[in-house]
Design goal:
The complex is a heterodimer of chains A (294) and B (341).
Chain A lengths: L13 H11 L1 H23 L35 H37 L1 H16 L2 H12 L3 H28 L2 H8 L4 H37 L11 H10 L6 H28 L6
Helix pairs in contact in A: 1-10, 2-3, 2-10, 3-4, 3-6, 3-8, 3-9, 3-10, 4-6, 5-6, 6-8, 7-8, 8-9, 8-10, 9-10
Chain B lengths: L16 E12 L2 E13 L4 E5 L6 H8 L7 E9 L2 E2 L5 H5 L6 E4 L13 H11 L5 H14 L5 H5 L8 H13 L5 E5 L7 H16 L3 E6 L2 H7 L2 E6 L2 E7 H6 L4 H9 L39 H5 L13 E2 L15
Parallel strand pairs in B: 3-8, 3-9, 6-7, 7-8
Antiparallel strand pairs in B: 1-2, 1-4, 4-5, 9-10, 10-11
Helix pairs in contact in B: 3-4, 3-6, 4-6
Classes of the chains: A mainly alpha (294), B alpha/beta (341).
């Protein structure tokens, strides 16, 4: 690192400033690196093995073999003789995909809904937020189960169902921020410039709440992964031969005494992902907190 | 006629902005608060009108009402005409065709009136681009010119910067440049110098004078009589939501007619005063906006008040065709005879 006193003051935006702060947080950097490793493995991992996700290895003495370097089953095999290394990364891929898409759905709906309600205020705000309250009151587990039962089990539906539940909190957070921002002088200046409400919301309000949104989103991702695991655990989530971390943990729990690696390996990956996301979220929150900005 | 020789603009030209009997009331849990009552003003092109008053006299609400920017519980009555268009009661869409392009607003605090995460270029050009009045290149050229007009050093580099990288004075200049981008005919300046230090204030006032000399009407709101003396052609003094005196600047300073105006002028500390002399204040406090009496609002604090002053409210009166008028039963001096006592 160069001496900051000697370096010329760089032209810095708010985002590059936040990025610098994030890089100074060791926990966030370690978490981000680990997460990156997991993502790379989730994408490339299955190709590293000679086995495929559905392939049963009949050549072994028992169907569930323990982890070994010699036979290429680095994480062992499951009760059906399928390679766990491949299945874990396929499962991670699925869990991350669900988490990302569902979070994206919840961020898009939540931000648009919350910013509109908060900026317009008054009666519009009342109605929009009462709608959110009503959805909150529904037991969301029940809601998702009904959705999957009525429309059948499909991946897209899982993304939508989880996202449709997840946006409520996001909308509330964003609405609170937009309500406060609306009173700020720069918003009045934008109105006095004759900009229409949609432009003001999109250009002057939403970017101001993005810091909070990003932080909350990184904390939503683990929730969604857990929720998907729970759905899969109940048999409502991802279907065979595809799998997810939640399913692998659920199946591993059945064979816990005879083949503990079936539980330990996917649990370790799941725990790593969740921990990393939480640390990254904390780091982002600190980095984007305007009160700490120097 | 008591117009000062410096008065620009023809008195016969139709005023750009015509405010008639404007009232602003706020509905609060404790009843209706009348922030502004029966205010009438005219503003012509190339003229600078200053509205002076202490905090809470309703001067900012007057300006916000003209642009349709009152808080949700605020209600404006009367009439505000810009050119041949009525602004009170106009829809947001109609107002948006006037805001920025017809009337621009320069607000008090340049530190908070520029959206922090947008580059100067975006802040300057968004009004033009959003209305598709210019292509991106044209808009950038105009932004460069606008920054040059306000005397910004190295405008090309400024376009890429963010507001927090500029000093307070520079930000106010950017805000002025942004206000001028869409070619308005009228500029509302709400205490444009309050948040700035003295050396920068002078520069901003110079720029505002330049804006007026380019033929725009400038309505400046201030509590600083120094600002008024240097810039304004005419002054309207507000007290408790009403205009109590209006006159050409020189005349107002030389011979204030309303006791409140006189007291305001007397309260300004002077450099040639004896250093030991005390600052002169106005005894008492302004009346609460929720409590309005039948008499003159200033009567309880006025040295000249009589029973008439407490009982009946004086009308704002002046000679026909003149610009000077005073709302007082017992005006000081007599440079303008009141038509009817």
């Amino acid at each position: 690192m160069a001496d900051p006193a000697l370096a010329p003051a760089p032209v810095q935006g708010l985002w590059s400033d936040a990025w610098q702060r994030l890089r100074r947080s060791r926990a966030a950097v370690v978490a981000a690196s680990l997460l990156l490793l997991v993502i790379v493995l989730a994408i490339a991992g299955p190709w590293l093995s000679q086995y495929t996700v559905e392939q049963v290895d009949w050549s072994q003495a028992t169907l569930a073999t323990s982890p070994s370097l010699a036979n290429g089953h680095w994480f062992g095999t499951d009760a059906n003789g399928r390679d766990l290394f491949v299945r874990v990364w396929i499962g991670t891929r699925m869990s991350l995909l669900v988490a990302l898409l569902a979070t994206l759905v919840s961020v898009v709906i939540g931000v648009a809904w919350g910013a509109t309600a908060g900026y317009l205020g008054g009666r519009v705000d009342d109605w929009m937020m009462r709608f959110v309250d009503v959805l909150y009151a529904l037991p969301y587990m029940f809601f998702v189960i009904i959705l999957t039962v009525v429309f059948g089990r499909s991946l897209v539906l899982i993304f939508l169902a989880i996202g449709a539940v997840g946006w409520l909190t996001m909308a509330r957070i964003v609405r609170g921020q937009a309500l406060a921002l609306r009173q700020r002088e720069f918003v009045e200046a934008a109105i006095a410039l004759g900009l229409p409400p949609a432009t003001i919301i999109a250009r002057h309000i939403v970017p101001n709440v993005l810091g909070t949104v990003i932080v909350y989103a990184t904390l939503t991702v683990p929730q969604v992964i857990l929720f998907e695991s729970f759905l899969s655990f109940l048999g409502l989530g991802v279907q065979e031969p595809l799998t997810s971390l939640g399913r692998l943990v659920a199946e591993g729990a059945l064979e816990m005494e005879s083949s503990p690696w079936l539980l330990l390996v996917p649990s370790a990956v799941l725990a790593t992902v969740l921990l990393c996301l939480n640390f990254l979220g904390d780091g982002l929150r600190d980095a984007l907190d305007p009160r700490q900005r120097t | 006629m008591t117009r000062s020789p410096s008065q620009p603009g023809s008195p016969d030209a139709a005023p750009l902005l015509q405010v008639r009997d404007l009232g602003v009331a706020f509905a609060t849990p404790h009843g209706t608060v009348q922030a502004v009552a029966s205010v009438s003003l005219d503003l012509r092109a190339g003229e600078c009108l200053a509205v002076v008053g202490e905090s809470g006299s309703g001067k900012t609400q007057l300006l916000l009402a003209c642009l349709g920017l009152l808080a949700a519980n605020g209600r404006a009555s009367g009439s505000v005409r810009f050119g041949d268009r009525e602004l009170l009661g106009a829809s947001e869409e109609q107002l948006n065709t006037v805001r920025g392009t017809g009337i621009a607003l320069l607000s008090q605090d340049p530190l908070s009136s520029l959206t922090p995460h947008l580059r100067i270029e975006t802040l300057l050009t968004e009004g033009l681009l959003d209305r598709r009045l210019a292509t991106r290149d044209e808009a950038r050229q105009r932004a460069l010119r606008a920054l040059e007009d306000v005397g910004m050093p190295d405008p090309a580099a400024r376009l890429r910067q963010y507001p927090h990288e500029l000093s307070g004075g520079m930000r106010q200049r950017v805000a002025l440049a942004a206000a001028m981008m869409c070619g308005p005919r009228l500029l509302f300046a709400d205490e444009p110098t309050t948040a700035l230090d003295v050396s920068v204030q002078a520069r901003v006032l110079e720029l505002l004078a330049g804006v007026r000399d380019r033929g725009l009407g400038v309505l400046i709101i201030t509590h600083d009589l120094g600002v008024v003396a240097g810039l304004a052609d005419r002054v309207a003094v507000m007290y408790a939501g009403r205009v109590v005196e209006t006159a050409a600047t020189a005349q107002l300073f030389k011979a204030p007619r309303h006791p409140y105006t006189a007291a305001l002028l007397a309260a300004v500390p002077r450099l040639d005063d004896d250093a030991q002399s005390r600052l002169v204040g106005i005894p008492g406090d302004p009346p609460l906006a929720s409590v309005r009496t039948a008499g003159c609002d200033f009567a309880p604090r006025c040295n000249y008040a009589t029973a008439t002053c407490l009982a009946s409210r004086p009308e704002l009166r002046g000679p026909q065709g003149g610009t000077a008028a005073v709302a007082c039963h017992r005006p000081l001096g007599a440079p303008v005879p009141v038509e009817e006592a």
